[in-house]
Amino acid sequence: MKEENRRKVTAIVLAAGKGSRMGTRIQKQYLELNGRPLLYYALDAFERSPVDRIILVAGAGEEEYCQKEIVERWGVTKVTAIVTGGRERYHSVYAGLKAAGPCDDVLIHDGARPCVTVEIIEAAMEGAARYGACVVGMPVKDTIKITDADNDASGTPDRSRLWLVQTPQAFSRELITGAYDRLFENPASQEGITDDAMVVETMTRHKVRLIRGSYENIKVTTPEDMEIAGIFLKKRENNS
Fold first, then answer.
1. Which residues touch 54 (CB under 8 Å, ≥6 apart)?
2. What is the three-class DSSP state of 128?
3. What secondary structure, in 3-state letters, does 5-53 show?
């Protein structure tokens, strides 16, 4: 494909979460992982990928820190804007979308997923171009139980149709921006929204395709997750 015909892609990397389950005074995205900030790894993967620009969404008051200690210190040249996130994830995504600028597709990624790879990013880009909406994930390995209010099992869904949803989640810019506009026009619809695919599913009739990511593409939420992510990253470093 000629360069002038290539689809323009913006990545929105979310780093505004509080990470309360980590149990540390420092926000989890800035904790050191194998000698570098956790957030660095996701940004580095997008830096090395074909995406055109990165919008980094930071917590209120953390914008300058991200600029100096993450972007400038580690040479992430594709970050063109650092914007302030909001109370909920969907507030942060909406802030990122408003700063995305002219592009064809948008990839939305959790900065707390350090093990994302260029290959996964490229697959998400291809999925956005082909389907208009796609989400990276993996089939579940374990049996899943549905419980009632007393934690008694009330059902067992078919495991063959269940996926663990990951990021990046990738969409045509027009589709995802329109879906988020409608979400914020109707605040009652925001109840229970947990990811971007759910916004598209709720606010449009567009189907969302699931594509395979990696079982290593975990979200760091607890100290145990940090240890596991460190092992995955060290293994890659040793194999490179």
1. 10, 11, 12, 13, 43, 46, 47, 76, 78, 79, 80
2. helix
3. HCCCEEEEEEECCCCHHHCCCCCHHHCEECCEEHHHHHHHHHHHCCCCE
pLDDT by residue (tens digit) across 142-176? 999 999 999 999 999 999 999 999 999 999 999 99
Per-residue pLDDT tens over the stretch 18-74: 655 555 556 789 999 999 999 999 999 999 999 999 999 999 999 999 999 999 999
Tens-place pLDDT, residues 117-136: 999 999 999 999 999 999 99
d(CA 37, CA 104) in angstroms, rounded, equals: 30
Q: Which amino acid is at 157?
A: P
The CA distance from 163 to 161, in Å, is 7
Beta strand pairing call for 105-110 and 163-172: antiparallel
Q: CA 136, 86, 58, 98 torsion: positive or negative? A: positive
CA distances from 231 to 187, 226, 228 (A): 41, 9, 5
CA pair distance 58, 48, nearest whole angstrom:
21
Would you call 11 helix, strand, or coil by DSSP?
Answer: strand
Distance of alpha carbon 134 from alpha carbon 127, whole angstroms:
6
Q: Is 167 helix (H, G, I), strand (E, B) or coil?
A: strand
Query: For tokens 């074909």, what's the residue?
Result: 50
Strand, coil or helix: what is 61? Answer: coil
